[in-house]
Amino acid sequence: MAYLKPTDRNKPWARRKMPKTRELKSLSKRNTFIIYCEGEVTEPTYFKSFPINTETIVEAIGLGRSKTALVRKALELLTKEKRLKRQKNYDSDTQIWMVFDYDIRPNVDDSNDYNQAIQLAQAHNINVAYSNDCFELWFLLHYQFQNTNLTRFEYYNMLSNKLNCNYEKEGKSLEYSKSLYHIFLPLQPKALQLAHRLYEHQKHLPFNEQNPCTTVFKLVEELNKCLKQ
């Protein structure tokens, strides 16, 4: 707002333009989540479904990239926006997260790519919600403890049975993804407990050897701190 002379501050036209302290407080955003996802539908839609309070912003963006390609693209965007630490738009109340999977492929060793992606993000003070083998492990843990290695297609089949649908074709659609938060919410405490249990037993291992494991629970716990009361 332009400067107002003291003699003008009580005039009606000046009072209309000056926001009240309460209004200024309501306009301030104390918490921001910037979540860069490998998937373009399921993950960002799920995280944007959290009923966060009015003082929190959640930006969940699907970049369609995986592992180091995802992290490098996110760093490019953050650098351009000057939001990294020691840049002028850096905000300590902003949490930046990467969400991606191992997605093991037959006859392909992606372990270096997977490990380096997590290390690269952490080197820039960015949080990582990684999953080995896939994000759907987080969903399955709402129903049962899973401590044996499975492929993503096996997770899809198990979720199809639990959700009474073809998860790979229907469950990963935009419309169905909008319902996932509410579907899983009643069982979320169980998933948090089981995911934490898996992680604690394997966190000393190299990232690619933590299987099955997901740290999505860490991001969920942070979002839960900002829910509407």
Tell me what the structure shows.
- With 229 residues, the chain is of the alpha/beta class.
- It contains 11 helices and 5 strands; from the N terminus they run ααβαβαβαβαααααβα.
- The chain has one domain.
- A 5-stranded mixed β-sheet has the order 2-1-3-4-5, with helices on both faces.
- Strand 3 (94-101), helix 5 (111-123) and strand 4 form a beta-alpha-beta unit.
- Helix 3 packs across helix 9 (174-184) and helix 4 runs parallel beside helix 5 (111-123).
- The chain is globular and about 65 Å long.
- The two termini are 33 Å apart.
- The model is unreliable at 21-27 (pLDDT under 50).
Count of spatially separate domains: 1
Radius of gyration: 21 Å
**Contiguous uncertain segments of 5+ residues:** 21-27
Shape: globular
User: Average pLDDT across residues?
Assistant: 89
Number of distinct beta strands? 5
Number of helices: 11
* Order of the strands making up the biggest sheet: 2-1-3-4-5
Beta-strand content bin:
5-15%
Helix content: 40-55%
Question: What structural class do you assign from the helix and strand content?
Answer: alpha/beta
Major β-sheet profile:
5 strands, mixed
How far apart the termini lie comes to 33 Å
> How would you spell out the order of helices and strands?
HHEHEHEHEHHHHHEH
